[in-house]
Specification:
Elements lengths: L9 E10 L2 E2 L1 H10 L5 E2 L10 E2 L7 H5 L1 H6 L2 H16 L12 E6 L5 H12 L10 H5 L3 H10 L5 E4 L5 H15 L4 E9 L3 H9 L28 E10 H6 L6 E10 L12 H14 L8 E3 L6 H14 L6 E2 L2 H4 L6 H15 L1 E2 L22 E2 L4 E8 L3 E9 L2
Length: 412
């Protein structure tokens, strides 16, 4: 490593996660280590090309948030609020006495609240506009995800919604890093949240040919980097990372879980939905993240891949990794367990990367029964792999040619 490695000055001091593997970071981590896929048939999606998805089990918004608040918000915001509260507590912060104008919120959100749009549009289309809820718009617009976190916790600094499709959660971390390094704030609650386990996204993604059609075996449908991959699985989830300027974290005696050492982003400028076949945009983003972290490719010990399980994405991502690394590090793809939560995915995977660095173990990719030899990757499969790690990379790509990558380093 170069002298600058891990010295970007941004510490991760807290994590909060709500995923199909469990409610809370510890439960999610246990589920990821078990490598048990969470996809199951869902009656909400009955009759569709993909009638299964990955839902958060046992999530009771009324019990977790209170009936009045839960009623006002959409599902994705429910998930985000629970994750944010956990992250703040994990960081040892008390919103009652933190410097509220110096606390920012940046959340990645890829779409809108399909759940409420479906219901309210149906009322309007049926000739009953007077029955449309006055909360329909505030429930549904993307900026209300960070907005409601700010309201709930009293964070009065910059409050931003970032939307770069499936790269949104990762992009949010990069924007947060820039806010901290610019001196605009001392603390940022950053991450992503989304729920796409609804009929409209299932229909739309299905019409595009992006979803797996393994209706007879949902649990084994998401199979990143496998020769038999045929599309991704709809999911939901949220992750929030508490990021602080390193000097601020030290001054208050905070425990640092990891360092957000580098961030890079790019646009393929190639196609509205498909990645560039050679992965050049993602490779550019990874190179940018490494340069920002002061690291060389050979310093990276592990890659948490975007790994959607679509034929073209996995191939393009493999080519990007081979373009960057003389020898690709061990890779994992957690959508095989969690499904794809769109705007939440990158943040969830970054949080899992922090946990991998903390525990020095790589969680496994599920369903890798027949690794695609054309991709030539060292994919950690079936069981966790203990691994000495100083630096790890998390990658994301999305519609519109969006690419984002973050480098995280262990706190030593």
């Amino acid at each position: 490593m170069t002298a600058a490695a891990g010295g970007a000055g941004v510490a991760v001091t807290g994590l909060g996660m709500v995923t199909p593997a469990g409610i809370g970071a510890a439960a999610t981590w246990d589920g990821l280590l078990a490598g048990a896929p969470t996809a199951a048939t869902d009656p909400v999606l009955a009759g569709l090309h993909q009638d299964f998805c990955c839902r958060v089990p046992g999530f009771d918004a009324h019990a977790l948030l209170g009936r009045r608040l839960a009623w006002r918000l959409d599902r994705g915001t429910h998930l985000a609020l629970v994750a944010a509260r956990e992250a703040v507590a994990d960081a040892g912060l008390d919103p009652a006495d933190w410097p509220a104008p110096r606390v920012a919120v940046v959340m990645g959100v890829g779409t809108c609240s399909f759940e409420h749009y479906e219901r309210e549009f149906a009322r309007a289309a049926d000739g009953r506009p007077e029955t449309v809820s006055p909360f329909a718009l505030p429930r549904s617009i993307p900026n209300m995800v960070p907005g409601e976190i700010g309201l709930d916790l009293g964070a009065q600094g910059p409050n931003l919604a970032v939307s770069t499709a499936c790269a949104s959660g990762t992009t949010a971390l990069g924007v947060a890093r820039d806010l901290l390094r610019s001196g605009s704030c001392d603390i940022v609650l950053a991450g992503g949240a989304e729920s796409v386990c609804h009929r409209i996204p299932a229909i739309c993604f299905g019409q595009m040919g992006a979803l797996s059609g393994r209706r007879d075996d949902p649990a084994h449908a998401s199979r990143p980097f496998d020769r038999g991959r045929d599309g991704f699985v709809l999911g939901e989830g949220a992750a929030v990372l508490v990021l602080e300027r390193a000097d601020h974290a030290r001054a208050r005696g905070a425990r640092a879980l990891a360092n957000l050492a580098g961030y890079g982003a790019s646009c393929d400028a190639h196609h509205v939905t498909s990645p560039h076949p050679d992965g050049r945009g993602l490779a550019q983003a990874v190179h940018g993240a490494l340069a920002a972290a002061g690291l060389r490719p050979e310093d990276v010990d592990h890659v948490n891949a975007h790994g959607t399980s679509t034929p073209y994405n996995d191939e393009a991502e493999a080519r990007a990794l081979h373009a960057v690394f003389p020898r690709t590090p061990p890779v994992t793809a957690l959508k095989s367990v969690l499904g794809h939560s769109i705007g939440g995915a990158g943040a969830i995977e970054a949080a899992a990367t922090v946990l991998a660095l903390r525990h020095q173990v790589v969680p496994p990719t599920a369903n890798l029964d027949d690794p695609d030899p054309a991709l030539d990757l060292d994919v950690v499969a079936k069981v966790p792999r203990p691994l000495r790690m100083r630096a790890a990379l998390s990658t994301s790509s999305g519609f519109g040619g969006q690419n984002a990558a973050v480098v995280l380093t262990a706190e030593v």
